[in-house]
Write a structure and sequence with these properties.
By secondary structure, the protein is of the alpha+beta class. It has 5 helices and 19 strands. 20% of the residues lie in helices and 33% in strands. The radius of gyration is 24 Å and the shape is globular.
């Protein structure tokens, strides 16, 4: 009889140990990979999970672990800012219209869950905000005049080794000293100030606002006269890349240029960003191009949806701002 009770007690203790191990595994190795909306909901599971999710270290860890695209921010002159979630049950923001900011704003650029917005009044200040936590920061006034429609790129790269959420905002603006040139001004959150780079681009071209992306420390913009203007933040040098003028993006850590025509989608991947510095007649390829054909039967549904997105994206350059956003818990 005693042996039976002792045996049941041993089994119960083993089951409790297994349960505790499983609970710790879920808390430590699963929660950081979930989107912010799910995490806020999981705070109600138990006290331990609430404390875990509420710590700054967990927010930092989640920012480095969760990399899925959550949705798109859409803004037009006739409608308030809205967020289109790719999975409404998992992804969402508490205030899609961004009314937690002190004034009405236009979304200019985004990076890894942070948005850069520009105010409508006064000096048209820049704001960096996290739409999930509704935290925001107003940046100081730039040293240079960025013009009515600045070409901005926000750079925020979470890192496990960098606990402080540091970011940079790069603006390419027309030079006041030379015609048909542009200069670059950089805001660093680590320094809390703006700095005008000594680099001047004499490409005699106008950059397209809302077209910029960044890859591995290099910022790229489309130009109106075709081609891509690149600015290396490490060396603070600019150059022009020829041959491609599609929508810029990032895939597997490399710059892409995508264009659609009829039933074909052309995706070009930049394999060598320093091709303009190569010797003449060099055999090193700058771009790798893939042509994707879309079947006729798909045009009524999937392809039609893609074409509509592309049309809005092109209109984005003048009227509508679309921003891909990966929602994170930390800022």
């Amino acid at each position: 009889m005693d042996r039976g009770k002792r045996s049941n007690s041993v089994i119960a203790n083993r089951n409790n140990k297994i349960y505790m191990d499983l609970k710790d595994i879920i808390r430590e190795h699963t929660l950081p990979f979930l989107p912010a909306k799910s995490l806020f909901r999981f705070k109600t599971v138990c006290r331990d999970w609430k404390l875990q999710i509420s710590t700054p270290f967990f927010a930092h860890n989640q920012s480095n672990s969760f990399h899925d695209v959550s949705g798109l921010f859409c803004q037009s002159s006739s409608n308030p800012t809205s967020f289109i979630s790719l999975a409404p049950n998992s992804y969402g923001v508490p205030d899609p219209s961004l009314q937690f900011l002190p004034e009405p704003v236009d979304i200019k650029t985004s990076s890894n869950g942070l948005l850069c917005c520009q105010g409508h009044t006064g000096d048209k200040a820049y704001y960096i905000c996290n739409p999930v936590t509704k935290q925001w920061k107003k940046l100081p006034k730039p040293n240079a005049n960025h013009g009515p429609d600045p070409c901005l790129v926000l750079m925020f790269e979470p890192s496990l080794l960098n606990f402080v959420a540091e970011y940079k905002l790069v603006c390419a603006f027309p030079s006041a000293d030379f015609e048909n040139t542009c200069e670059f001004e950089i805001y660093s959150s680590a320094e809390g100030s703006w700095r005008i780079s000594g680099e001047i681009y004499f490409g005699a071209t106008k950059l397209i606002p809302n077209s910029g992306v960044h890859v591995d420390g290099i910022v790229y913009w489309l130009s109106e006269s075709s081609g891509i203007v690149a600015f290396d933040l490490t060396m603070e040098r600019s150059q022009r890349l020829y041959g491609h003028n599609g929508c810029l993006g990032v895939m597997n850590g490399k710059l892409t240029s995508t264009s659609a025509y009829n039933q074909s989608l052309t995706v070009s991947v930049l394999s060598n960003p320093y091709t303009n510095t190569m010797a003449m007649n060099s055999r090193v390829k700058a771009w790798d191009t893939n042509l994707v054909s879309i079947s006729t039967t798909a045009r009524s549904s999937a392809d039609l949806h893609f074409q509509t997105f592309m049309d809005f994206h092109v209109m984005d350059l003048c009227h509508t701002a679309w921003e891909l956003c990966s929602l994170r818990a930390g800022m």
